[in-house]
Amino acid sequence: MIKLHGFPLSPNTRRALFGLEEAGLPYEFVPVDLMTAQHRTPEYKALNPTARVPVMVEGDFTLWESNAILEHLAARVPERELGPKNPTERGCISQWMFMNAAHLSPALAHIFAHTIRLPEDQRIPKLVENGRAEIERCLRPLDNHLAGKDWVIGRFTIAEISIAPSLSVAPMIGVDLSVYPNVSAWLGRIRGRAAHQKVYG
Ligand SMILES: N[C@@H](CCC(=O)N[C@@H](CS)C(=O)NCC(=O)O)C(=O)O
């Protein structure tokens, strides 16, 4: 049985949970309390030496990095067509997943840290400003790409499962997604899926 260790409110954990639900594989969720630094204990670091959530464990196989977990899950259930079916699709899906992992998601995390998470005397306004510019740099191309399309590559894939959880923090940190109408409509379609509703309640 797959065990998914994670913090329930973490977007990265929710990305893996969303993937598990879409894959339809049975799993057990094992909560890891970030508030009490459970992710920094030797027991947890034996599973994920980077001391981050989530991590997937199945027997003696452990896998961390939520996007790696998504790719692994998609490959396990090819009948669900969550992953690429040819090299072109592989490239297109990876392009948007990597953009999210390298640029969009860190920008959102920086804004969250420097507007909400850190004590006020540790917040750096310039990082928030840079983060907002980076978000425009990522979401404007995504919005243009989604014009006239329901999904990133024409069908629902791990590109959607990967990016949507990052954007769930947007309203909390004052990122107005309504200026990206195609992204907003696309998020609405993603949020309408049973798997998403199961993860987000
Ligand atoms: N790139 C990693 C990011 C994981 C990550 O940063 N998780 C956060 C929670 S959303 C975490 O574990 N934070 C605890 C820490 O950095 O100490 C992934 O996609 O799995």
Explain what this protein looks like in three dimensions.
Helices cover 55% and strands 9% of the residues. The protein is built from 8 helices and 4 strands; from the N terminus they run βαβαββαααααα. A 4-stranded mixed β-sheet has the order 2-1-3-4, with helices on one face. It has 2 domains: 2-80, 3-Layer(aba) Sandwich (Glutaredoxin), CATH 3.40.30; 87-193, Up-down Bundle (Glutathione S-transferase Yfyf (Class Pi), Chain A, domain 2). It is an alpha+beta fold.
Structural class: alpha+beta
Major beta sheet summary: 4 strands, mixed
Lateral strand order in the biggest sheet = 2-1-3-4
Helix content: 55-70%
Bound molecules: glutathione
Give the second-level CATH assignment, the architecture of the largest domain: Up-down Bundle
| Average pLDDT reading | 97
Query: Could you state the order of secondary-structure elements as H and E?
Result: EHEHEEHHHHHH
End-to-end separation: 23 Å
Strand and helix layout:
Blueprint lengths: L1 E5 L4 H13 L3 E5 L10 H6 L7 E4 L2 E4 L1 H11 L10 H31 L7 H22 L11 H10 L13 H11 L2 H7 L1
Parallel strand pairs: 1-2
Antiparallel strand pairs: 1-3, 3-4
Helix pairs in contact: 1-3, 1-6, 1-8, 4-5, 4-6, 5-7
